[in-house]
Protein backbone atom coordinates (compact mmCIF):
# COMPACT_ATOMS: atom_id res chain seq x y z
CA UNK A 1 0.00 0.00 0.00
CA UNK A 2 1.35 3.41 -0.97
CA UNK A 3 1.38 5.89 1.88
CA UNK A 4 1.87 9.64 2.02
CA UNK A 5 4.97 9.90 4.20
CA UNK A 6 6.55 12.93 5.82
CA UNK A 7 10.26 12.20 6.29
CA UNK A 8 11.84 14.21 9.11
CA UNK A 9 15.32 15.00 7.78
CA UNK A 10 17.76 16.28 10.40
CA UNK A 11 20.68 16.65 8.00
CA UNK A 12 22.38 13.47 9.19
CA UNK A 13 23.05 10.18 7.47
CA UNK A 14 20.37 8.17 9.30
CA UNK A 15 17.40 10.34 8.38
CA UNK A 16 18.64 10.67 4.79
CA UNK A 17 18.84 6.90 4.28
CA UNK A 18 15.48 6.41 6.03
CA UNK A 19 13.85 8.86 3.61
CA UNK A 20 15.53 7.14 0.66
CA UNK A 21 14.30 3.73 1.78
CA UNK A 22 10.75 5.01 2.21
CA UNK A 23 10.81 6.49 -1.31
CA UNK A 24 12.34 3.33 -2.79
CA UNK A 25 9.54 1.29 -1.16
CA UNK A 26 7.10 3.19 -3.36
CA UNK A 27 5.68 5.65 -0.86
CA UNK A 28 4.87 9.27 -1.71
CA UNK A 29 7.59 10.93 0.40
CA UNK A 30 8.09 14.58 1.29
CA UNK A 31 11.15 15.68 3.24
CA UNK A 32 10.97 18.26 6.02
CA UNK A 33 13.70 19.83 8.14
CA UNK A 34 12.78 21.32 11.50
CA UNK A 35 14.16 24.80 12.24
CA UNK A 36 14.36 24.75 16.02
CA UNK A 37 16.12 28.00 16.93
CA UNK A 38 14.88 31.59 16.69
CA UNK A 39 18.56 32.54 16.50
CA UNK A 40 20.43 29.75 14.64
CA UNK A 41 23.80 31.28 15.53
CA UNK A 42 23.11 30.44 19.19
CA UNK A 43 23.09 26.70 18.43
CA UNK A 44 26.06 24.48 17.76
CA UNK A 45 27.82 24.53 14.43
CA UNK A 46 29.83 21.72 12.93
CA UNK A 47 29.44 17.99 13.42
CA UNK A 48 29.11 17.86 17.20
CA UNK A 49 25.65 19.29 17.45
CA UNK A 50 22.13 18.25 16.53
CA UNK A 51 19.91 20.54 14.42
CA UNK A 52 22.90 22.79 13.64
CA UNK A 53 23.04 25.69 11.21
CA UNK A 54 24.60 23.46 8.52
CA UNK A 55 22.06 20.67 8.81
CA UNK A 56 19.28 22.31 6.81
CA UNK A 57 21.57 22.56 3.78
CA UNK A 58 22.68 18.93 4.18
CA UNK A 59 19.06 17.78 4.43
CA UNK A 60 18.08 19.73 1.30
CA UNK A 61 20.96 18.24 -0.70
CA UNK A 62 19.96 14.75 0.41
CA UNK A 63 16.33 15.36 -0.62
CA UNK A 64 17.53 16.53 -4.04
CA UNK A 65 19.56 13.34 -4.53
CA UNK A 66 16.63 11.17 -3.44
CA UNK A 67 14.31 13.16 -5.69
CA UNK A 68 11.66 14.18 -3.17
CA UNK A 69 10.07 17.55 -2.35
CA UNK A 70 11.66 19.34 0.60
CA UNK A 71 10.47 21.98 3.03
CA UNK A 72 11.67 23.67 6.22
CA UNK A 73 9.21 23.95 9.08
CA UNK A 74 9.74 26.61 11.73
CA UNK A 75 9.25 24.84 15.06
CA UNK A 76 11.37 27.26 17.12
CA UNK A 77 8.54 28.45 19.35
CA UNK A 78 7.38 24.91 20.15
CA UNK A 79 10.96 23.73 20.73
CA UNK A 80 11.74 26.58 23.11
CA UNK A 81 8.55 26.02 25.10
CA UNK A 82 8.50 22.23 25.23
CA UNK A 83 12.22 21.39 25.34
CA UNK A 84 14.40 24.33 26.38
CA UNK A 85 12.09 25.82 29.01
CA UNK A 86 11.22 22.34 30.28
CA UNK A 87 14.96 21.59 30.60
CA UNK A 88 15.56 24.73 32.66
CA UNK A 89 12.50 24.35 34.89
CA UNK A 90 13.27 20.67 35.54
CA UNK A 91 16.78 21.47 36.78
CA UNK A 92 15.39 24.32 38.87
CA UNK A 93 13.07 21.78 40.53
CA UNK A 94 15.96 19.42 41.30
CA UNK A 95 15.21 16.97 38.47
CA UNK A 96 17.43 15.65 35.67
CA UNK A 97 15.64 15.83 32.30
CA UNK A 98 16.60 14.23 28.99
CA UNK A 99 16.08 16.95 26.35
CA UNK A 100 16.46 14.57 23.37
CA UNK A 101 13.73 12.33 24.74
CA UNK A 102 11.55 15.37 25.34
CA UNK A 103 12.17 16.56 21.77
CA UNK A 104 11.10 13.19 20.35
CA UNK A 105 7.97 13.22 22.49
CA UNK A 106 6.80 16.81 22.12
CA UNK A 107 8.25 17.94 18.80
CA UNK A 108 8.89 15.06 16.38
CA UNK A 109 5.97 12.86 17.46
CA UNK A 110 3.44 15.35 18.73
CA UNK A 111 3.73 18.75 17.05
CA UNK A 112 5.11 17.39 13.76
CA UNK A 113 2.85 14.35 13.64
CA UNK A 114 -0.23 16.42 14.44
CA UNK A 115 0.62 18.83 11.62
CA UNK A 116 1.43 15.97 9.25
CA UNK A 117 -1.91 14.24 9.86
CA UNK A 118 -3.74 17.56 9.41
CA UNK A 119 -2.02 17.96 6.02
CA UNK A 120 -3.11 14.50 4.89
CA UNK A 121 0.05 12.48 5.52
CA UNK A 122 -0.32 8.91 6.73
CA UNK A 123 2.96 8.55 8.59
CA UNK A 124 6.10 10.30 9.82
CA UNK A 125 9.38 8.62 8.91
CA UNK A 126 12.56 9.14 10.96
CA UNK A 127 16.07 7.74 11.06
CA UNK A 128 15.85 6.34 14.59
CA UNK A 129 17.48 2.96 15.09
CA UNK A 130 14.48 0.96 16.29
CA UNK A 131 12.14 -1.64 14.81
CA UNK A 132 8.36 -1.83 14.63
CA UNK A 133 7.05 -5.37 15.11
CA UNK A 134 3.31 -6.00 15.37
CA UNK A 135 2.73 -2.41 16.42
CA UNK A 136 5.35 -2.45 19.19
CA UNK A 137 8.71 -0.72 19.40
CA UNK A 138 11.54 -3.27 19.43
CA UNK A 139 15.25 -2.68 19.92
CA UNK A 140 17.42 -2.19 16.82
CA UNK A 141 19.59 -5.05 15.61
CA UNK A 142 22.48 -2.62 16.23
CA UNK A 143 22.59 -2.72 20.02
CA UNK A 144 25.13 0.11 20.24
CA UNK A 145 22.86 2.47 18.27
CA UNK A 146 19.48 1.33 19.61
CA UNK A 147 17.16 4.28 20.29
CA UNK A 148 14.12 2.49 21.68
CA UNK A 149 14.73 4.15 25.07
CA UNK A 150 14.33 7.70 23.77
CA UNK A 151 11.14 6.65 21.97
CA UNK A 152 9.68 4.83 24.96
CA UNK A 153 7.47 7.83 25.77
CA UNK A 154 5.50 7.52 22.52
CA UNK A 155 1.84 6.54 22.68
CA UNK A 156 0.31 3.63 20.81
CA UNK A 157 -1.44 6.06 18.45
CA UNK A 158 1.81 7.90 17.67
CA UNK A 159 3.59 4.62 16.95
CA UNK A 160 0.75 3.62 14.61
CA UNK A 161 1.66 6.64 12.44
CA UNK A 162 5.43 6.17 12.62
CA UNK A 163 7.90 4.60 10.20
CA UNK A 164 11.42 3.51 11.23
CA UNK A 165 13.20 1.99 8.21
CA UNK A 166 16.64 1.54 9.83
CA UNK A 167 15.99 -0.85 12.71
CA UNK A 168 17.07 -3.91 10.77
CA UNK A 169 20.62 -2.77 10.00
CA UNK A 170 23.80 -1.50 11.65
CA UNK A 171 25.17 2.02 11.49
CA UNK A 172 28.04 0.81 9.30
CA UNK A 173 25.50 -0.60 6.83
CA UNK A 174 23.62 2.72 6.84
CA UNK A 175 26.79 4.64 5.98
CA UNK A 176 27.69 2.19 3.22
CA UNK A 177 24.19 2.50 1.74
CA UNK A 178 24.37 6.29 1.88
CA UNK A 179 27.63 6.19 -0.06
CA UNK A 180 26.11 3.88 -2.69
CA UNK A 181 23.18 6.26 -3.06
CA UNK A 182 25.49 9.23 -3.55
CA UNK A 183 24.43 11.00 -0.36
CA UNK A 184 27.07 13.50 0.74
CA UNK A 185 26.27 12.87 4.42
CA UNK A 186 27.57 9.29 4.23
CA UNK A 187 30.62 10.11 6.36
CA UNK A 188 29.09 12.88 8.46
CA UNK A 189 29.87 12.29 12.16
CA UNK A 190 27.05 11.50 14.55
CA UNK A 191 25.60 14.33 16.62
CA UNK A 192 26.48 14.68 20.29
CA UNK A 193 25.68 16.87 23.26
CA UNK A 194 22.75 19.25 23.70
CA UNK A 195 22.02 21.27 20.57
CA UNK A 196 20.82 24.41 22.36
CA UNK A 197 23.88 24.72 24.60
CA UNK A 198 26.37 26.08 22.08
CA UNK A 199 29.53 25.80 24.21
CA UNK A 200 28.64 22.51 25.89
CA UNK A 201 28.68 24.14 29.34
CA UNK A 202 25.41 22.97 30.88
CA UNK A 203 26.14 24.54 34.29
CA UNK A 204 26.96 27.88 32.68
CA UNK A 205 23.80 27.75 30.56
CA UNK A 206 21.66 27.08 33.64
CA UNK A 207 23.39 29.84 35.61
CA UNK A 208 22.65 32.31 32.82
CA UNK A 209 18.99 31.28 32.82
CA UNK A 210 18.46 30.84 36.55
CA UNK A 211 21.12 33.08 38.08
CA UNK A 212 23.72 32.38 40.73
CA UNK A 213 22.25 31.23 44.06
CA UNK A 214 25.01 30.12 46.47
CA UNK A 215 24.22 27.43 49.01
CA UNK A 216 25.77 24.65 51.08
CA UNK A 217 27.09 21.25 50.11
CA UNK A 218 26.55 18.91 53.06
CA UNK A 219 27.28 15.31 53.92
CA UNK A 220 24.63 12.88 55.17
CA UNK A 221 25.15 14.00 58.77
CA UNK A 222 24.46 17.63 57.86
CA UNK A 223 28.07 18.82 58.10
CA UNK A 224 28.86 21.57 55.59
CA UNK A 225 31.73 20.47 53.33
CA UNK A 226 31.65 23.31 50.83
CA UNK A 227 29.45 25.67 48.87
CA UNK A 228 27.92 25.84 45.40
CA UNK A 229 26.69 28.62 43.12
CA UNK A 230 23.35 26.99 42.39
CA UNK A 231 21.84 23.59 43.19
CA UNK A 232 20.45 23.51 39.65
CA UNK A 233 23.96 22.85 38.32
CA UNK A 234 24.11 19.39 39.92
CA UNK A 235 22.58 15.99 39.22
CA UNK A 236 22.23 12.77 41.20
CA UNK A 237 25.36 10.64 40.98
CA UNK A 238 27.65 13.51 39.95
CA UNK A 239 31.21 13.29 41.27
CA UNK A 240 33.25 15.76 39.22
CA UNK A 241 33.10 19.48 39.87
CA UNK A 242 32.14 19.31 43.54
CA UNK A 243 35.29 21.20 44.61
CA UNK A 244 35.20 19.91 48.17
CA UNK A 245 38.91 20.26 48.71
CA UNK A 246 39.56 18.65 52.07
CA UNK A 247 36.92 15.90 51.83
CA UNK A 248 38.90 12.71 52.48
CA UNK A 249 36.96 10.30 50.29
CA UNK A 250 35.26 10.40 46.93
CA UNK A 251 31.83 11.93 47.29
CA UNK A 252 28.85 11.77 44.98
CA UNK A 253 25.72 13.91 44.80
CA UNK A 254 23.01 12.01 46.69
CA UNK A 255 20.18 14.54 46.67
CA UNK A 256 19.29 18.06 45.56
CA UNK A 257 16.87 20.17 47.58
CA UNK A 258 15.84 23.21 45.53
CA UNK A 259 13.66 24.65 48.30
CA UNK A 260 16.51 25.02 50.80
CA UNK A 261 19.14 25.16 48.04
CA UNK A 262 21.16 22.29 49.52
CA UNK A 263 23.23 19.65 47.76
CA UNK A 264 23.90 16.51 49.83
CA UNK A 265 26.88 14.30 49.02
CA UNK A 266 28.12 10.96 50.28
CA UNK A 267 29.76 7.66 49.32
CA UNK A 268 28.84 5.81 46.15
CA UNK A 269 27.16 3.06 48.19
CA UNK A 270 24.55 5.58 49.35
CA UNK A 271 23.39 6.03 45.74
CA UNK A 272 22.04 2.49 45.59
CA UNK A 273 18.26 2.23 45.30
CA UNK A 274 15.96 -0.74 44.91
CA UNK A 275 12.62 1.03 44.60
CA UNK A 276 11.46 3.73 42.17
CA UNK A 277 8.25 5.73 41.94
CA UNK A 278 7.05 6.88 38.53
CA UNK A 279 4.37 9.23 37.24
CA UNK A 280 2.78 9.90 33.84
CA UNK A 281 2.97 6.27 32.68
CA UNK A 282 2.53 5.53 28.98
CA UNK A 283 1.77 1.94 27.89
CA UNK A 284 2.34 1.46 24.17
CA UNK A 285 3.22 -2.25 24.07
CA UNK A 286 0.47 -3.71 26.25
CA UNK A 287 -2.78 -2.81 27.95
CA UNK A 288 -2.28 -0.42 30.84
CA UNK A 289 -2.25 -2.22 34.19
CA UNK A 290 -4.73 -0.95 36.77
CA UNK A 291 -4.20 -0.29 40.48
CA UNK A 292 -4.84 -3.57 42.28
CA UNK A 293 -3.52 -5.73 39.44
CA UNK A 294 -0.75 -8.16 40.29
CA UNK A 295 2.90 -7.24 39.73
CA UNK A 296 4.19 -7.11 36.16
CA UNK A 297 7.58 -8.83 35.81
CA UNK A 298 9.69 -7.13 33.15
CA UNK A 299 12.95 -5.29 32.61
CA UNK A 300 13.59 -1.57 32.96
CA UNK A 301 16.13 0.84 31.50
CA UNK A 302 16.67 3.98 33.55
CA UNK A 303 18.71 6.19 31.22
CA UNK A 304 19.86 6.28 27.61
CA UNK A 305 22.51 3.62 26.97
CA UNK A 306 22.21 2.57 30.61
CA UNK A 307 22.08 -0.88 32.12
CA UNK A 308 18.85 -2.88 31.93
CA UNK A 309 17.50 -4.19 35.26
CA UNK A 310 15.07 -6.95 36.13
CA UNK A 311 12.08 -5.59 38.03
CA UNK A 312 8.42 -5.84 38.90
CA UNK A 313 6.00 -2.98 38.28
CA UNK A 314 2.73 -2.24 40.06
CA UNK A 315 0.20 0.35 38.95
CA UNK A 316 -0.88 2.89 41.58
CA UNK A 317 -3.34 5.76 41.63
CA UNK A 318 -0.38 8.16 41.20
CA UNK A 319 1.48 6.17 38.51
CA UNK A 320 3.70 3.12 39.07
CA UNK A 321 5.95 1.59 41.73
CA UNK A 322 9.03 -0.24 40.45
CA UNK A 323 10.85 -2.83 42.57
CA UNK A 324 14.30 -3.67 41.21
CA UNK A 325 15.61 -7.24 41.43
CA UNK A 326 19.02 -5.79 42.38
CA UNK A 327 19.94 -2.24 43.42
CA UNK A 328 20.85 0.41 40.83
CA UNK A 329 22.88 3.60 41.26
CA UNK A 330 22.60 7.14 39.94
CA UNK A 331 18.83 7.11 39.52
CA UNK A 332 17.50 10.68 39.44
CA UNK A 333 14.00 12.19 39.47
CA UNK A 334 13.17 13.55 36.02
CA UNK A 335 14.77 10.66 34.18
CA UNK A 336 12.58 8.19 32.33
CA UNK A 337 12.08 4.51 33.15
CA UNK A 338 11.34 2.47 30.02
CA UNK A 339 9.90 -1.03 30.49
CA UNK A 340 10.75 -3.96 28.22
CA UNK A 341 9.49 -7.45 27.52
CA UNK A 342 12.71 -8.87 26.09
CA UNK A 343 13.58 -6.39 23.33
CA UNK A 344 10.05 -4.99 22.98
CA UNK A 345 9.00 -1.75 24.68
CA UNK A 346 6.04 -2.11 27.00
CA UNK A 347 5.83 1.50 28.17
CA UNK A 348 7.47 4.18 30.27
CA UNK A 349 7.10 6.49 33.26
CA UNK A 350 8.85 9.60 34.53
CA UNK A 351 10.85 8.92 37.69
CA UNK A 352 9.48 10.96 40.60
CA UNK A 353 11.30 9.40 43.56
CA UNK A 354 13.49 6.54 44.76
CA UNK A 355 13.83 4.26 47.76
CA UNK A 356 17.30 3.60 49.16
CA UNK A 357 18.51 0.01 49.14
CA UNK A 358 18.83 -1.75 52.48
CA UNK A 359 21.99 -0.90 54.41
CA UNK A 360 23.24 -4.50 54.19
CA UNK A 361 22.98 -4.45 50.40
CA UNK A 362 24.74 -1.09 50.24
CA UNK A 363 27.61 -2.29 52.42
CA UNK A 364 28.04 -5.62 50.64
CA UNK A 365 28.07 -4.16 47.16
CA UNK A 366 31.40 -3.65 45.38
CA UNK A 367 32.33 0.03 45.09
CA UNK A 368 34.27 0.66 41.89
CA UNK A 369 36.26 3.86 41.79
UniProtKB/TrEMBL annotation:
GO molecular function annotations of the record: ATP binding; tRNA binding; tRNA-uridine 2-sulfurtransferase activity
This enzyme's EC code(s): 2.8.1.13
Main location: cytoplasm
Keyword Lipid biosynthesis: no
Top-level taxon: Bacteria
Chain positions of site Interaction with tRNA: 128, 335
GO biological process: tRNA wobble position uridine thiolation
Xref: InterPro entries: MnmA-like, MnmA-like_C, MnmA-like_central, MnmA-like_central_sf, Rossmann-like_a/b/a_fold
Chain ranges of the tRNA-specific 2-thiouridylase MnmA-like C-terminal domain: 282-351
PANTHER family: MITOCHONDRIAL TRNA-SPECIFIC 2-THIOURIDYLASE 1, TRNA 5-METHYLAMINOMETHYL-2-THIOURIDYLATE -METHYLTRANSFERASE
Function summary: Catalyzes the 2-thiolation of uridine at the wobble position (U34) of tRNA, leading to the formation of s(2)U34.
Family membership noted in the UniProt record: Belongs to the MnmA/TRMU family.
Protein name per the record: tRNA-specific 2-thiouridylase MnmA
Lineage: Bacteria, Bacillati, Actinomycetota, Actinomycetes, Streptosporangiales
